Amino acid sequence: MDEVGRVICRRPTAYVLELDICSYFDSIVRKQLMELVERRVSDASILRLIGKWINIGVVDDGRLLESETGTGQGQIISPLLANLYLHHVLDLWFENEVKPRLKGQAFEIRYADDALLCFQYREDVQRVLRVLTKRFAKYGLRLHPEKTRLVEFGRRAHHQAKRLKTKTATFDFLGFTHRCATSRNGKFTVHVGTMKQRLRRSLTAIAAWCRNHRHAPVEYQQRMLNAKLRGHYQYYGRPTNLRSLRRFFRTVRSTWRKWLQRRTRGRSLSWAVYLKFLKRYPLLVPRIYHAWST
Predict the structure, then answer these.
(1) I need a labelling partner for 136 at 20 to 30 A (CA). Which of 55, 187, 250, 294 fits?
(2) For residue 239, pLDDT beyond 80
(3) What span, in angstroms and rounded, lies between the C-alpha atoms of 258 and 215?
């Protein structure tokens, strides 16, 4: 996340290409994966063990499912192998073969199978898109046609939008929606907020938990809800995301009241009574865990 802000704010970035790979973990070609592993690993017993890992299949609803591709998402070694695969397919290729042939500067930011490609010129983006699809197809991968998109984003796009009194485009990465903004001292910066889909999904999970555990001891409910709040704050607690954290807190607080009220056998749990209850069983208030990147 810090790298995204650094590249967009301090490098000549004018276009951001969001990459979304269709069913990445299930599309990895095992033969090509093993060839990449063998470039660094020569121990036959280790290679045989990795081969067993990726060919063992997965159990779903008591049934053993086997496939010809993929690393079996959920296996202990799957993230490592998937990262190694994309490192060769995308990272090294983009750094060693693509960037030297471009007109302007370009940057790649990747975490697991989520990646951004940042460019200085649109013509470079178009050139890369033409070869990127072929590059991925060579290794059994396919870009999602709807979720892979190009946005004009950066200092120039922000100034142009201010001049025309329009809004700049946004993009999503690692659960955050990124927006162009102006800092307090008048400089260009990037603000982030929790993606609406992620926020909705988290609140739905909280509501389901409260419903299923509404008859559990209050002390247990408070402890578990605070653990969930703490986890949410620790991930999404970035300096420009306080508004979303407060919304999440208020909704969780209201949801807990709703399901506690079901225990009162028809008696209303007023907000005045509930606020006194929260003084005894407080919920964690929003907190920013991540400092501004330097």
Answers:
(1) 55
(2) yes
(3) 13
